Amino acid sequence: MKIAYNGGDFYGFQSQKNDFPTIAKKLEEVFASVGIFNKFIASGRTDKGVHANSQVISLELPSFFNDFHKLQSILNTKLYPCIKVKHIWEVNQDFNARFSAKKRGYCYLLSQTSSPFLNHFSLFHTIKNEHLIQEALNLLLGTHNFSAFMKLGSKNSSTLRTIYRAKLRKTKNFYIISICGNGFLRSQIRLIVGFLLEIDKGNLKVCDFKAQLLGKQIFKIPCPPQGLFLSKVSF
């Protein structure tokens, strides 16, 4: 299933031991209400407040669900208004939404105007140095050790990640920072964007960004989560 969600009212995607609402917990509740009790696997775990337009989950459906369009309609009625199933399709038995994924893409939305109707889905920040941001983004391309762009307390067997694309583009009253890679560490995108905004403000330089990419700790404050979207997963 490909799903989209507004993460603003949720404590991230992954289920937690406490009673905090998460995307996974809501999905589990709705699935159980229609007779789906099998566990599902997600292509990635978004943090608290982060949104998704193309999250993918894999699971085994009971045999009586042979009309995917009908099932999609029933699920969307129950998941409304914050979560939507965009597509359901059949895959091979060995498909795994997490391990079969080859690329993942995230977008961070920067609004050039402040509005109460946009502030839950973007960060108000007026770009001043577009060329400096893109210069820093170009440094991300390739394989790097992103240990300096990772939230403390994270557990990973490796902090090496490969970035295939990193772009800044403008559309109407928004700038969009899009980064595509083979995977991401916890809060990696938000820490990168937070650093880029400091460059734009003139508080840091592109050479500082390069130094942190090489492992030197310079600035490690993540930007707010509401502007971040999981935008694409490729298999």
From TrEMBL:
SUPFAM superfamilies: Pseudouridine synthase. Pfam families: PseudoU_synth_1. It catalyses: uridine(38/39/40) in tRNA = pseudouridine(38/39/40) in tRNA. CDD domains: PseudoU_synth_EcTruA. It comes from the Bacteria. Keywords: Isomerase, tRNA processing. Its EC number is 5.4.99.12. Homodimer. This is tRNA pseudouridine synthase A. It comes from Helicobacter valdiviensis. The lineage of its organism: Bacteria, Pseudomonadati, Campylobacterota, Epsilonproteobacteria, Campylobacterales.
